[in-house]
Specification:
The structure is a single chain. The protein has 351 residues and is mainly alpha-helical. It folds into 2 domains: 3-47, no CATH class; 71-171 and 186-331, Rossmann fold (3-Layer(aba) Sandwich). The chain has helices at 3-14, 28-34, 37-47, 71-92, 105-118, 135-148, 158-172, 187-211, 221-226, 247-257, 261-264, 278-282, 286-298, 303-310, 314-326, and strands at residues 96-100, 123-127, 151-154, 213-215. Strands 3-2-1-4 form a 4-stranded parallel sheet, sandwiched between helices. Helix 4 packs across helix 5 (105-118), helix 5 (105-118) packs parallel to helix 6 and helix 13 (286-298) crosses helix 14. The longest helix has 25 residues, at 187-211.
Amino acid sequence: MDVYSRLLYICNCLTSDCAWENILFKDKALIRDKCPRTVYNKWCLIAMGAERKTIVDAGIGRTTGTFITDRPGLELVRSRIVDDIRTTVEDAGATGVVVAMSGGIDSTATAELAVEALGSDRVLGLGLPCHKSERAGVSEARTIAEGLGIEFREIQLRPVLEAFEEAAAIELEPGDDASGDDARPDERTHALGNVIARLRMCCAYYAANRQRRIVLGTANRSELLLGYFTKYGDGAADAYPLGDLYKTEVRALAERIGVPRRIVSKEPSAGFWAGQTDADELGATYDVIDPLLQRLVDEDESIENAAATLEIDRETARSLAWLYTETEHKRSLPPTPGIADRGAEQSLPGQ
């Protein structure tokens, strides 16, 4: 069957009631170019073909069905991340790094690995609370920073957010005739949560610009694959030291490098608003999410087979797969029209 016939076959399946989860097809570029975006997104759900960016080092490679949680593997991961931070800073000609610290496992582990790579005098920690509920987390972050011997600055973002609401948000709200706005009462809360994330990154980059540092993001692979970050907020960084590791692996690495158990066991939260948790937002805990993503993305399993093997509710599996597909734009550079074969991702000759 030629490629166009396969394309037609897939499109027909996508618009029928057949079990399209079991179709596998690899010609992504063709599908993306020839299909409407809605069809391409559905195809992504089928194929789940994104290649895992692995940490490549002696003894570390693509894993199948298991997470990197053993002591030798974690030591190799630790060494690779430390080397990568050091190389990234040196290549940028930077004096050090900035890490936004929430008191959670990801930012704590990132800060500890940065200190191991660069020394405590080259790491700046920022505490950027906006809600009263975040005070405990910032206090925890300050304690961690003191233990690491790094400089720590705390900036209260609540006055900044209030100024934004008064000066900008009120002018940008939809008009009275906006259809369906009353039926979506949580949208404003989510939008302001994104504003907070972007304010935090504004602070991180201002510090980085003023002190010739780079910004280390704290997202892990689970969050990146699900798009569980704010575009140009916590999704803006110069490097993600934990970006190749699932949350399950981050927990194991954090324990290995000495992150306090009280932090490792803390309920994951992005801190977008008071009482918010990752599990509530995503619809499942990482104990469910990570094995499913590994099978769908790393091993190209169908949703149906992965859900059955892991004994996960099929609707939950499909919801998580949908998040992976619909947030692809967050993991890519903004597209250009591609005039005369020009593109934003083109490299210079010889690169």
